[in-house]
């Protein structure tokens, strides 16, 4: 039972453990279900909202994912650079596709 806890809380574990979709599901989907935002409705991950906020690129999304902004803390230490980039690429692809349910 200790191994699953280590994988969740050990900082280096996330970036070697899967792709952007899996990392998003594990670390982001709790607040950003289907690209929404349960805390601040206007701060979604939908394409129009990202464009409105000047975050319309994987690089801009990665910077927010790593460092955080406003009420959202950063996940750089948990995801590591590769994980942050994987999540950002996934978010950007989903935003461009309209966050299809799948």
Describe this structure in words.
There is one protein chain. This protein has about 100 residues and is mainly alpha-helical. The protein has a single domain, classed as Cytochrome c-like domain (Cytochrome Bc1 Complex, Chain D, domain 2, Orthogonal Bundle). It contains five helices and two strands; from the N terminus they run H-H-H-H-E-E-H. The chain has helices at about 1-10, 20-25, 45-50, 60-65, 75-95; strands at about 70, 70-75. A two-stranded antiparallel ribbon has the order 1-2. A hairpin with a 2-residue loop joins strand 1 and strand 2 (about 70-75). Helix 2 (about 20-25) packs across helix 5. It is globular, with a radius of gyration of 13 Å. The chain starts with a helix and ends in a 6-residue tail after the last helix. The relative contact order is 0.18. Mean pLDDT is about 85; it is low at about 1-15.
Chart the SSEs and their pairings.
Layout (H helix, E strand, L loop, with lengths): L1 H8 L10 H8 L19 H6 L5 H10 E2 L2 E2 L2 H21 L6
Antiparallel strand pairs: 1-2
Helix pairs in contact: 2-5, 4-5
Taken together, the total number of domains comes to: 1
Enumerate how many helices there are, as a single number: 5
Mean pLDDT: 85
Widest sheet: strand order? 1-2
CA gyration radius, whole angstroms: 13 Å
Classify the beta-strand content into a percent band.
Answer: under 5%
CATH class: Mainly Alpha
Which outline best applies?
A: globular
Main beta sheet: strand number and arrangement?
Answer: 2 strands, antiparallel
Structural class of the helices, strands and pairings? Answer: mainly alpha
Number of DSSP strand runs: 2
CATH superfamily: Cytochrome c-like domain
Into which percent range does the helicity of residues fall? 40-55%
Element string (H = helix, E = strand):
HHHHEEH
In the CATH hierarchy, what is the architecture at level 2?
Orthogonal Bundle
Flag low-confidence runs: 1-17
CATH topology: Cytochrome Bc1 Complex, Chain D, domain 2
Query: Span from first to last CA?
Result: 30 Å
